[in-house]
Each structure stands twice: as C-alpha cells, then as structure tokens.
Recover the amino acids of this structure.
C-alpha cells in the first residue's frame, strides 16, 4: 500500500509542476507581447517625432530667411525715411528763404513751391510703397505656411512651395495630376487640389496662374498637337477642376502652357 501511495504522490506532483510551468510560460509570452507592442509604439513615436522635427526645421529655416529679408527691408526703409527727413528739412529751409527773397518773381516762387510739394509727395509715395511691400511679404509668408500645413501628408518629392520675386509658387509633380500624355485630371489628384482650393478660397486677395510643363519627348495624338498643346490643356483642366468642384472664382484664375521650354525638372 505504501508503494501505491508514493507513486500517486509522484504523479500528482509532476502534473502540478507542469501546470505551474505552463502558466509561467503563458505569462512570460503575454509580457513579451506587451513589451513588443510598447517597443513598436515607441519606434512609431520616434519616427513621427523625427518627421515633425524635420518639418519644424524647414519652417524655422523659412522664418530665418524671412527675418533676413525683413531686416534688409527695414534697412531700406530707414534709408528712405532719412531721405524723406532730408527732403523735409530742405523743403522747410527753402520755404523759409522764399519769404526773404524779395527779388523772386511770383511765378518763380510758385514753381519752386510746386517742386517742393512734388518732392514731398514723392517722399510719401516711397513710404507707402515700402509699407505695401512689407505687407505683401507678410501675406506671402502666411500663405506659404498655410499651404505647407495643408499639404504636410504629401510626399516632399512630389510638391514644393516657395516664394520667388514676391510670388508664391506651388510646383506639383505631373504624376499626381495626370497619366502620361493625358490632360484628364486623375481622381487621386483630389487630395492635393482640394487642400489647395481651400487655401485659395480663404485668401481671396491672391490671383492664381496655373502653368503646365512637359519634358522634351515629342508627342502627337488625334487630340493633342504637341507638348505645348498638352501643357496648355493640362493647365486648363486644372482651372476647370478648381472652378467646377471647389467653386474657385474663374475671374481669379489664368491657365497657360509652357510646354518643354521651361521644364520643372531636367529633360
């Protein structure tokens, strides 16, 4: 009887130990999965953080560039203001002397007065012009930042936003808009065009020029004569798309084709 009892205890002990080991294994696997999920989430957060840091650096570089331009504009403004002050002082000195110059004829005095008034008007014009330039630069910068924020999920290689000579340029890869050799707007273009249309509709002080570009590979179809014709039809398709789908005022838009003559990339 003792042997039977002993064997039973051994079997029971073995079963109990197996259950405990299996439970520990399951718990360990659960913890490992949980840790892996946390690691995956951490990797994604780091990637997102890196992308945001890149976007922030781009924005900061734009701001620094604009600060340099504003500082240069400020220097020019100060120079203009000094010129205006000098003109005012000269005007006043001449006006003071006019009252003491009895030999001047009435006609001569009036001519001098008109000249001085003209100089004063020129000074005001310079100040107004400078203020207008500064306002335009500020509006352009705000527009660029709005467009970049709206298009932050678009591949940087497919779209570029910049300011050149006081004009905001948005360059979009043709593969986002059209099939090769076609002027029909792709359905996938709606993602970009809808966001651009919203910004355009929110900034009604700006007019829009849509330019089409092609490479220098010759082409001709029953409906398209050459690359120049294709680029013009593509530009027209875009403005019609913006007008019909997003109600952009057609009076604000102009469509033009550049063909292969001013390519956006090397041929």
């Amino acid at each position: 009887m003792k042997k039977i009892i002993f064997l039973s205890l051994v079997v029971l002990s073995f079963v109990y130990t197996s259950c405990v080991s299996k439970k520990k294994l399951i718990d360990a696997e659960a913890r490992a999965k949980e840790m892996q999920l946390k690691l995956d989430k951490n990797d994604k957060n780091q990637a997102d953080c890196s992308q945001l840091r890149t976007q922030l650096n781009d924005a900061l570089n734009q701001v620094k560039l604009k600060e340099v331009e504003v500082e240069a504009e400020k220097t020019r403004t100060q120079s203009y203001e000094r010129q205006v002050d000098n003109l005012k002082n000269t005007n006043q000195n001449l006006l003071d002397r006019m009252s003491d110059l009895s030999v001047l004829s009435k006609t001569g005095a009036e001519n001098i007065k008109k000249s001085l008034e003209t100089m004063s008007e020129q000074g005001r014009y310079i100040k107004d012009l400078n203020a207008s330039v500064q306002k335009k630069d500020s509006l352009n910068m705000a527009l660029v930042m709005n467009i970049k924020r709206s298009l932050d999920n678009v591949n940087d290689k497919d779209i570029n936003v910049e300011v050149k000579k006081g004009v905001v340029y948005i360059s979009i890869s043709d593969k986002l808009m059209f099939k090769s050799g076609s002027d029909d707007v792709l359905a996938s273009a709606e993602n970009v065009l809808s966001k651009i249309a919203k910004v355009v509709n929110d900034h009604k002080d700006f007019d829009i020029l849509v330019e089409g570009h092609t490479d220098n590979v010759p082409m001709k179809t029953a409906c398209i004569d050459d690359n120049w014709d294709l680029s013009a039809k593509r530009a027209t398709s875009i403005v019609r798309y913006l007008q019909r789908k997003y109600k952009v005022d057609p009076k604000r838009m102009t469509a033009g084709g550049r063909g292969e003559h001013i390519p956006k990339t090397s041929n």
User: Anything to note?
Assistant: The first strand starts at residue 159 and ends at 164. The helical segments are 2-98, 106-150, 174-177, 190-202, 227-246. Residues 121 and 144 are 34 Å apart (CA to CA).
